[in-house]
Automatic annotation (TrEMBL):
This is Transferase. GO terms for molecular function: transferase activity. It comes from the Bacteria. InterPro entries: Nucleotide-diphossugar_trans (IPR029044). Keywords: Transferase.
């Protein structure tokens, strides 16, 4: 079994023995065993938008921040898809391919801490690059892959609508259709305001955080739209995933072996 911890996690004091204990409790159908991820947040204030985003990793279903996979299972499905260059999508893609091949994934008993990385105010704009990966996920696993991966759908439909309203408002204004331009501009303003408030209200309400949320709430929708369109162009020839090899269960450790592993 190979272990795939991220380089920014802090494993527990029994890091070396934990996967062995998890393996002893697993069945032969288990392809991977994930750790319980803890993301410490601030204790003296409400978390920022970025800190809330990072905290969501603790609830991610198949996060590979500290995942141990059977080598046989990785070989059976072809390993990681190198077209995914960002986190989460590569995790979900691999997990879905494992499930499609007949394997199961389970949670282990070990605990790993993943501190919140430092980030500048534009991190939410840069993260929209993941929308291109979402297009590839849809090509490979179908439009309902979010549900199968137990993942948060995100606000892409709203971002597309807001960007469309802004572009239409500008186009109508240039054509002299001021009434239509005004209506579209009002729709864009309402959507942007709702988006900004949804990010500001749960936060610490500091001046810097409110400024960051106000500015990036204008920039995130067009950035998301751009990367979504880029993904549709880049991955338009991608074909649905089919298992590379039939599932062959790995014999689970017998009672005597389990006892040695746990001792």
């Amino acid at each position: 079994m190979g272990r795939l911890p991220d380089d920014d996690v802090v494993p527990g004091p029994t890091w070396g023995d934990d996967p062995t204990l998890d393996l002893a409790a697993a069945t032969g159908r288990a392809a991977g065993i994930t750790a319980r991820i803890e993301v410490p947040g601030p204790t003296d204030r409400r978390p920022t938008d970025w800190e809330r985003n990072a905290a969501g990793l603790a609830a991610a279903r198949w996060i590979t921040a500290d995942m141990a996979y059977r080598r046989a299972a990785l070989a059976a499905v072809g390993g990681f898809d190198e077209r995914f260059r960002r986190g989460f999508r590569e995790d979900a893609d691999l997990a879905l391919r494992m499930v499609d091949a007949g394997w199961t994934l389970t949670g282990g008993r070990r605990t790993t801490t993943r501190p919140v990385r430092q980030a500048d105010r534009w991190i939410s704009v840069r993260l929209q690059a993941g929308n291109a990966d979402d297009v590839l996920m849809t090509r490979l696993h179908g439009r309902h892959w979010w549900r199968r991966a137990e993942a948060h759908r995100g606000r892409l439909p709203a971002h597309l609508a807001m960007t469309g309203a802004a572009v239409t408002a500008l186009g109508c204004a240039l054509l002299g259709r001021h009434r239509t331009a005004g209506a579209c501009a009002a729709a864009w303003l309402a959507g942007t305001t709702e988006f900004a408030l949804a990010r500001i209200l749960p936060g610490p309400h500091t001046r810097d955080e409110m400024f960051t949320m106000s500015v990036t709430s204008v920039l995130v929708p067009p950035a998301a739209t751009w990367h979504w369109l880029r993904g549709r162009l880049a991955h338009h020839r991608a074909r649905p995933y089919t298992p590379l090899a039939p599932f062959e269960p790995v014999p689970a450790p017998g009672p005597a072996v389990r006892q040695r592993l746990l001792s």
